[in-house]
């Protein structure tokens, strides 16, 4: 899940806690072009205040206008955008003829809903996925453990909807560098929670990256701490300093991180692999988990181009695409 989705749940909690009814909207399925994937969420109040998104803006505008006009009073319902309506009311047309199905839940400020959102937030800050089931008959919901991490994010049946909930996407950047900065900015725009670990005061003294968390500690120490690396975490090292990069890799391969990469030429990468095997205590399988050289081979030269190649490769692995399929 994107870090934005955690912010949506936290905002919904805040509004419920002050006595506001909220509408929690979840993208169920998309056909054709759609800016957000199934499972993405948005929360809104009756006065139109909202956080999160469902599309590029047109769907949100229509929903909020109708919400303020008094629609969506049911406990639960689904809405389809991008297809002609039976009542001939003007319908939103999505880019490229896309269709978007949305689950809309009306949550009143009672103890049950507050408790459920607190549980959702805990799952998104944790390490393991849960399955959220919502009944389309009465809007009742539940959270249950999952036996595996794979499968479709959202499943829709005649009687209900199941959504896989889990930790929000996280990027841990081991050390600041000219490449780390644009990499962090790209990751924030992609919805990642971004954490920079930098123990060198001369590097972080003028730290000014918006929406990026700074940890003034060795990356390896932060990575090794239980709970900091989960299945939705990517770890990248781009300082060219083996005291930072190598130690970060040694700890990262012992975690559930879905992507681990370190910058360097092919020759540098080969030397690093030999070093990690001989003195780092890693096995061949652990070294194989490390993407080195990091990133897609785009012919990148500038720091921003290298950062783009890095985040493109992280996205490729996150989406389960093989390099040969590109």
UniProtKB/TrEMBL annotation:
Alphabetical list of Pfam families matching this protein: XdhC_C (PF13478), XdhC_CoxI (PF02625)
Domain XdhC Rossmann: 171-314
Record domain XdhC- CoxI: where: 15-81
Residue ranges the record marks as coiled coil: none
Protein name: Xanthine dehydrogenase accessory factor
Organism from which the protein derives: Marinobacterium lutimaris
Lineage per the UniProt record: Bacteria, Pseudomonadati, Pseudomonadota, Gammaproteobacteria, Oceanospirillales
